[in-house]
Design a protein that fits this description.
The chain is mostly beta strands and 123 residues long. 0% of the residues lie in helices and 46% in strands. Strands 2, 4, 5, 6, 9, 10 and 11 form a seven-stranded mixed β-sheet that branches. β7 and β8 form a beta hairpin. The mean pLDDT is 94.
Amino acid sequence: QLVESGGGLGQPGGSLRLSCATLGYTSSRYCMAWFRQALGKEREGDAGVGSDGLTSYARSVKGRFTISQDNAKNTLYLQMNSLKPEDTAMYYCAAEQKRLFLGWLLRPANFTYWGQGTQVTVS
């Protein structure tokens, strides 16, 4: 089970940190990623981390967002800096037990397990 938290209202140029608690399994053994879905748009990947620790970022968030894991807490994070109004979306945490190539980490179809989402509004 994946449980996201940390969403809310952010200001342009401000920061938010999203958390995803992985309940019942060891997150470090899975590929993990953050996705967003804005109203009326398709779900798209922002950042992913493989089971080997390598990370991948979408061009739109590179340099602003950072994905990280706390293996002791089985928690995935997304630090979001320099927020923009276009970052407004529902954010989802996802996990996949199969090993994924780096280039596949941002594709929603490659992930089996999903959280319920947390809303981020930048205004």
